[in-house]
Amino acid sequence: MTDCPFCDIARGKREAITLMKSDRTTAFLDHRPLGVGHTLVISNEHYENIFEVDRETLREAVEVARKIAVALNTVFHPLGINIIQNNGYHAGQTIYHFHIHVIPRYDQSYSNLLGEIAKGRRVVDSSKLAEVGNKLLASSLL
Predict the structure, then answer these.
(1) Any idea what the Cα angle at residue 111 is, between residues 33 and 103, rounded to 5°?
(2) CB neighbour list of residue 1: distance below 8 Å, 6 or more residues apart
(3) pLDDT tens-digit readout, 113-135
(4) How far apart, in whole angstroms, are the C-alpha atoms of residue 41 and residue 68?
(5) pTM of this prediction?
(6) CA 43, CA 36: separation in Å to the nearest integer?
């Protein structure tokens, strides 16, 4: 992949404050943090999203995200921590290289945002949920 900033970071061609690095993943501080310690965990190999990343890299990325979350919680004592992984434009993905955000929260602003979003959620009839569940189960993908 050309012109991928995360590929450049993984290869050492772009500067980043790296917290952890292995053959499969790199964890570094986000240069536009949403909170002190906001960290990105990326695959070293270029995968656009979760649909492309191999299982071993995905497994390691989640384990690294957990280690980062434990360290952030222990060192900085945030009120909470979000672990977010976006896939596609409409899900908020802005860099098309698989990555996980580990975002410590120090104020109420984000939880208020989630509360506002939650106000729009509605209970769905169990027959509709069963229909969705049956389609997923029939796909043979689960």
Answers:
(1) 25
(2) 7, 46, 97
(3) 777 778 888 899 999 999 999 99
(4) 9
(5) 0.89
(6) 22
